[in-house]
Amino acid sequence: MVARFAAAGWALLGLLPLSHPVQAETLHGRVVDATTGQPLAGVVVMAPQIRVGITTGEDGGFDLVVPGSVRGPLEFRLLGYEVATLPALASEANPPVVVRLVPAPIAVAEVEVQGSRDRRWDRAQGSALLSESQIRDRQGQTLGETLTQVPGLALLKTGPAIAKPVIRGLHSDRVLVLNQGLAQEGQQWGAEHAPEIDPFATGGVEVLKGAAGVEYGTGAIGGVVRVVPPRFRRTPGLGGRLALNGFGNNRQGAGALLVEGMAERLPGLSWRLQTSLRRAGNSRTTAYYLSNTGFSERNVSAALAYHRGTGAVELHLSHFGTALGIFRGSHIGNRDDLLRAIARGRPLAEGVFSYEVLNPRQQIAHDLVAAKVRHPLAGLGRLEVQYGWQQNHRSEYDAHRPYNDSLAALARPTFDLALTTRTLETRLEGVGGSAATLGANLMRQGNVRQGSVFLIPNFRARSGGVFARQIWYLRGLKLDTGLRFDQRRVQTYVRQRDGQVLARRHCYAGLSGAVGLIGGLGPAWTSGVTLGTAWRPPNVNELYSRDVHHGAGQYEIGDLGLGEERSLSLDWTLKHQGRRTQGELSLYRNRMDGFIFLQADPQPTVTTRGTFPTFRYVQSAALIRGIEAWLEYRPLVRGRLGVSATLVRGRDLSRGQALGAMPADRTRLWAGVGWPDAGWCRELNLELSLEAVARQQRAPAADYAPPPGGYLLLGVRLGGRSRWRGQILAWSVELENLADGLYRDYLSRYRYFAHDPGRNLTLRLELPFGRESEATK
Amino acid sequence: MQKKLSLWLLSVCLGLLAGCGSDNPAEPEAVNPQELITRITLNLTPLDDAGQPAAAAVVVGALDHEGDGKLDQIDTLMVKAATQYRGEVALFDGINNEDIGAEVAGEAEVHQFFFTAQGAAASRLSVSAADKESDYTTNTGTDHPVGLRFTLGVSAGGSGAAALNVVLSHFADAPKNGKDRSDHTDIDVSFPVVITN
């Protein structure tokens, strides 16, 4: 068993063959499940004598390059299946081979635990899965930044410390972020409130593009970012890793230490302790520093698990803490101040470098407890019960210091929110031996606010949902159907300015449903169509806001009469995994009824601080359509060329105008070359990339400034794995915005006042110790 | 073994939860008062040729009753043609019962009032600050005007209508230069002005 784990781990380290081929021959074929005929992804294909290996793609296909002299057997390994061997090598002229793997009766249980099945083939809709090593190679300053290269995903940024994922033009309350299997419950409604997740504590990320309401409920109307926790250690012993990151632009240092182990006496009992620290100073554009954009982060987590057979008990505790500065130039008084700042186009003060975080700033703590039990119930299916507790505490400090010195000395936040959420989720998979899943969940939430900003009141929310999902296999086609019912009740306690508290009740309920069909088109292609409907209730801020939003320089007014927002979406996705090419193409159309957004009110609000443009939350019919695609071609064993493109079109159908905050059209080109063994370094990889972003041509006329112009960003990255004192040291050096260009992105909330950061040099080092896969070396 | 362990884990988890604070939103929130400017008063004393008070002062106010920032009331300033006025600005926080004008005087180096005549008869009004930072605090660097005290001159002519815009700029980032406004406006109100003969 150990050897199998090791083989999988070793082969997953890279898709490139590890030895230098002389007179190479290519063997291509496909691996399928012998009983169902389903393609098997992630199967390790190896020529053991020469240690050449590769893993199969999504369609079960593989291309293995081996020296012509080798005539030994090939091995095919996948957890949960018997090892298969192919006696002789076929040559390139021969037709592709089909290898059938027979499920191993005893080891089948292990498949579930390891999750080595490729989930992407499960989904008809557009999706992306970033593995742990891909995440580490691309690790950015925030979780959002780590995901930037996923086509269809953009970032809504408020400086370098705050980046929210935008999936197909939707974000915030419309994108669900899952951490430890729990929906992250922070103050997600705010565009300047980023997901409170440590980018170091991820074992992978799955992005679902488009609604996933059946599986994940009302928050997933636009998409899901599922942060996969790192896997527990699977062999007795002690191990861990130290990761260090440095970012040149804001002189940021970050480090994480993870220690994990499994008890020698009680195999199956594993634990993990992890901590990370991060400190960044002011970011720099080509021409000036962005004052007060530094931040610091301290995170710690602990996890304990006991796995036995297909059953498991897991407990996870984590704390995320950050203190981040809000760019001073973005904090303005009233509309005239805003117009002056825009006319200037850059901050009044040039700024200097500093690590100090001053007002305005945000201080956020997110604590999470997740307890999960998985237990097989004979004849009934696999039961999973998860309990979650989360508390999000956000304090925002205004730039404006009180005139009164004694009040100023208290340094109280202007705005303070504490949100506590408890959830209980149950799920029964493989009901009665079928491919059906049943689930139910309950949630209770309380929000307590303090301060003088009237954007979100105290509230208590209770919600519950039930769902059923069934998968059918019909002649190589897979039909995935699901239905869900959710209800949410919200009791608000609105404190009036005179001190009186008004209680009000809101109740929302609705159905979500989806039908997906996936089929294979030849060995290298799969095609999927998904038709789905999902909904979400209006958020409390959309109902109750009644104050100046200083970052935006506008007065926002909620509407108590808002109803549910519903989407009806159609997605067509084509996935390709060929001998030399791979890629994915998605076309989608998402019709939203009762789409909630801020609409400019012709009547401005006159205050003692001046006149503010006024925005009201309104509902309208909207249509969002788009295309996203990527293609990678490997003309040579070592080289690769790739291209990706994302187009999104959003329209407010009632008013006949473009929807705001839609990402501009963008494309990315990359060219890479790899050396499996460069002597001093294994898997040495060099990649050049070019990102081109067009000007957003379709923006609503009611904006303070027109969308900024297009821009080009050049990047280069070199990485590999070297031996250091008997350990494998993974390293990479990356340069972003190589030309140090001055630019603004349409989705940057600072674009009115300042440019985006300039050139950035990133260094990443990772030193594992006590590795489990050492056995194979 | 598995059952025992899961029970143990569950009890650890419950114990942790019991230790977590209250989250009852129905409980009255802690009041966290913030400073507000709810009353802006202009006090204008007409002067005779010798610069002495010639009559009782004209007092106008801009009021925000609830402290929500919205301007609930603004008085019209009645001034006489061909008259010089000596003006004073008073600021008050009616919610916390505090004299904000005194606080501004204490931080004179990072504040400045800007007065602008607007409307049809704007050209007949001339407004300028009549004080310096050194009048309130020990001054370092250039001694810029503050504007808590100002003069208003109304030129001769018939009756007319105008407006007097009063802005208080807070200089938190950029240094004060005596001429330009900052991007942090604490007050921005326009009083209607009626000129009579």
Overall description:
- The complex is a heterodimer of chains A (777) and B (197).
- By secondary structure, chain A is mainly β.
- In chain A, 7% of the residues lie in helices and 53% in strands.
- Chain A is built from eight helices and 39 strands.
- The longest helix of chain A is centred in the N-terminal third of the chain and has 11 residues, at 2-12.
- In chain A, β35 (666-677) and β36 (682-693) form a beta hairpin.
- Chain B is mainly beta and 197 residues long.
- In chain B, strands 1, 2, 3, 5, 6, 8 and 9 form a seven-stranded antiparallel sheet that branches.
- Chain B contains two helices and eleven strands; from the N terminus they run αββββββαβββββ.
- Chain B has one domain (36-196): Immunoglobulin-like (Sandwich), CATH 2.60.40.
- Classes of the chains: A mainly beta (777), B mainly beta (197).
- Chains A and B meet through β18, β19, α6, β20 and β21 of A and α1, α2 and β11 of B.
What labels would you give this structure?
heterodimer; A: 777 residues; mainly beta; Immunoglobulin-like; Maltoporin, Chain A; 2 domains; five-stranded mixed beta sheet; 39 strands; 7% helix; 53% strand; globular; B: 197 residues; seven-stranded antiparallel beta sheet; 2 helices
What order do the helices and strands come in, and which of them pair?
The complex is a heterodimer of chains A (777) and B (197).
Chain A lengths: L1 H11 L11 E10 L10 E4 L4 E4 L5 E7 L6 E4 L6 E3 L10 E5 L6 H7 L12 E5 H7 L4 H4 L6 E5 L5 E5 L7 E5 L2 E2 L20 E6 L3 H4 L6 E5 L9 E11 L4 E11 L6 E12 L14 E14 L2 E15 L9 H10 L16 E17 L3 E17 L7 H6 L4 E15 L6 E16 L6 E17 L2 E19 L5 E21 L3 E12 L3 H5 L1 E4 L4 E4 L7 E13 L3 E27 L2 E24 L5 E14 L4 E2 L7 E12 L4 E12 L17 E14 L2 E10 L23 E10 L8
Parallel strand pairs in A: 1-7, 11-14, 29-32
Antiparallel strand pairs in A: 1-4, 2-3, 2-5, 5-6, 8-13, 9-10, 11-12, 13-14, 15-16, 15-39, 16-17, 17-18, 18-19, 19-20, 20-21, 21-22, 22-23, 23-24, 24-25, 25-26, 26-27, 27-30, 28-29, 30-31, 31-32, 32-33, 33-34, 33-35, 35-36, 36-37, 37-38, 38-39
Chain B lengths: L1 H17 L20 E9 L10 E6 L9 E2 L2 E4 L2 E11 L4 E2 H7 L4 E8 L6 E5 L19 E6 L5 E11 L13 E13 L1
Parallel strand pairs in B: 4-11
Antiparallel strand pairs in B: 1-2, 1-5, 2-3, 5-6, 5-9, 7-10, 8-9, 10-11
